[in-house]
Amino acid sequence: MAGAIPMETSTAQPPVRPMRADARRNHDRLVGEARRSFAEHGTDASLEDIARRAGVGIGTLYRHFPNRDALMNAVFQDALCSLLERSRELAAAEAPCRALVDWLGAIVTHAGEYRGLAHGLMSASRNGTSALAQCHLPLREAGAGLLRRAQESGSVRADVSIDDLLQLTNAIALAAEQSPDDPELAERLLRLTLRGLK
After folding, report:
1. Which of 34, 42, 124, 133 has the CB geometry, 3.0–4.6 Å to 116, for a possible disulfide?
2. pTM, two decimal places
């Protein structure tokens, strides 16, 4: 219609409403039970069992966490914060290559706490829509800073990418997960990684 004023469309998201107290309790119980179940049974633990142990129905679990990756993301936030803090501590280390490998070793250690986490993180690196990408992307950024510093110091080859390093790190965690009778495997593979980086 001539002379009509076009309506503006807003892309702004509505503000997130804080959780009610009972919803917050359910959320926290679900995360706690998921943490215990993932540690005991791996990340493919039964979501129905997690809901039951948290004292809620499966529908409540799905209202808080629409899929397994979203629940895994919530469970691993503490580990993510720890890894990001470790990257900040190592950012000024005297030996940048060693600092990078130490940080990659911390990822292997954290991934080893939950069978299946390394596989989930590997998948998230190729799927930006996964809730686990919220873990992968900050790790990638932190690792890229450590890698850049190591490359600028001349101690790491220029053709090494952070994406390749994170995939390699998750592969080491997967190999260690599959070889529980060889507790030194991850450390040996990380030493090989260190030699390959130079």
Report:
1. 42
2. 0.76
